[in-house]
Amino acid sequence: MIDDTITAIATAPGEAGISIIRMSGPSCVDILDNIFKPKKGSSIKAFSERKLVYGHIVDKEDDRILDEVLAVYMKAPYTYTKEDIVEINCHGGIVPTRNILEIVLKNGVRMAEPGEFTKRAFLNGRIDLAQAEAVMDLISAKTDKGFDVALNQLEGGLSKKVKEVRSSIVETLSHIHVSIDYTEEDIEEITYPELISRTREIEEKIESMLKTSETGKIIREGLNTVIIGKPNVGKSSLMNALLRESRAIVTDIPGTTRDVIEEQLSVKGIPLKIVDTAGIRETEDVVEKIGVERSKEFFNKADLIILVLDSSDEITKEDREIINHIKDRKALVLLNKTDLIKRIDEDELERVLPSKRIIKVSILEEEGLSEIEDEIVKMVYGGEVKADNNSFVTNLRHKNSLQKALNSIREGTAAARQYLPFDLLEVDIKDCYDALGEITGDTVDDDIIQKIFANFCLGK
Ligand SMILES: Nc1nc2c(ncn2[C@@H]2O[C@H](COP(=O)(O)OP(=O)(O)OP(=O)(O)O)[C@@H](O)[C@H]2O)c(=O)[nH]1
Ligand SMILES: [Mg+2]
Q: Rounded distance, CA 453 to CA 460, Å?
């Protein structure tokens, strides 16, 4: 049992309407009682829990009023942490917030570590580890889709699936046990073919979860997208059009963008980290040269490349060089400036980039933009998982555990196919069980838990 009381400012720093100072732990109600003077009555304890009470925070040493506040206490176990919780709503200025935090600390409360409230919710068994991780994803979600997926995970969507697989493993293990030592008579012994069909079923369930992880990662972290092309083809115009604002400078002078410009945007719920680059070309200009180098770096690490070509121009040597680089990459090709007379050789393009989607657009006349967005969505969901589904594996830690679980169960299947002894099979199946337990936190080391919560916000 955790026996100390912790505190933190739960709201963002700076000036705002209100700030909230939060406490959790066994002594928080007594401490509130010690520093809070209700407008009516003498003690907060005379009011029922979960009732917001108006009054003042007072430093009893010199009877100084620190702020006019609303305070509430909530009794364990039906709280965020499953412990007693206090929240003080004060004026959202730096001075009252700091003074109230100080007086709380003076009363013997310890400053919370980042994520410690949520960590207590986990340690006290209110939520599992995957749910706790979802809390941070909810806060940091950049798009509605990212939020919906995190909410699904917080409500136990992922955990439920993991638990289902784990319980079929337990069942399989119990059959193996009887077959090893004939103890429990009410459970049937298992044959090798039966065992294989069970492990194959487990494999399939894990595989189907893993399949969602590529899209899941993008939903959570964003799709690293880079716009490339030779100078003056309309890269910055595209960036601005997708952002629906004039972010990057657009002129008819080749070499206008001399450095990379990074922005975040949402394409139908998919967060895009999009980079407009300096047109890639040989140049003597020192600044532009650095820009071109940086563009290449972004190009190398991008998840998606949007190549812009000028359809009113023939394919040049510079275009061909870039085309060569995108052949094996996930890329979308835009033929821009279709409002002008066409000079580009489309047949050649289709020949050199046979598997790439080529979209004709006129960014100037806002033609074809929605087609670009639709194509990006299609590429992300890959036609495999439905876009209206909110059940994705978004977290790299979960993905790694699933992969580990899959490897173990596959080894189990292989061992069963070779009729290896049951006690050897049992080891593989147990490993699979443990790897899945890492996701929900049933089987996970303390230092991993430590690391997970260290990335949380203070006060959450
Ligand atoms: N006619 C026509 N002009 C366009 C279109 N899109 C962009 N332009 C023009 O092309 C010129 C270059 O556009 P930018 O967006 O600056 O091109 P860029 O690729 O970013 O150029 P650099 O930054 O120099 O590499 C500008 O004058 C734009 O107005 C289009 O669809 N049709
Ligand atoms: Mg530009």
A: 10
